[in-house]
Amino acid sequence: MTGGDVVALSGRMSREEFDRALVAIAGYGSDDDVEFGPAQLRALLDEEVIIMAGGLQVRDTETGVRVGPGCCAGLESWRDWARLLDGEVPWLGHSPSPGVEFAAGVVRVRPDEERSDDLACEIADLAGHLERVRQDLTGFLDLVRRWTPHGLGEVLAARFDEDFVITAPL
What is the reported pTM? Predict the structure, then answer.
């Protein structure tokens, strides 16, 4: 997320979307007065772990229900969703905390676990969806290599892959 906007990271991003996302990632948790540039990118690379506000958002195309990541559920933990395949409920954030239930071959995710009357997103092929997320993030890595300024594309892509565990098989 960048300034409250949802940005889907993928190899299909425009250059403007990519730049906005990179500035948001590099600036997360830093002084807002710092101008984006090589020093901010190097500081990002010096972080113990790169994190990105936001995470996976699910949307039911039939009902239109959207479930966004709760607070503190960053994109770096996207693979935690795979725990649902084993019947475990991963941390999906708080304020609100998404609710999860399992039923007949689907996972239902509600926007707020406190509101059981909310409509839910039904996810029938979670493994397939997670593989598409992995492919989208792999495409984003290609853009990081190509478009990251100051000659830092390769090293930043490698670091994203390490911290977000993108290219490893699910």
Answer: 0.89
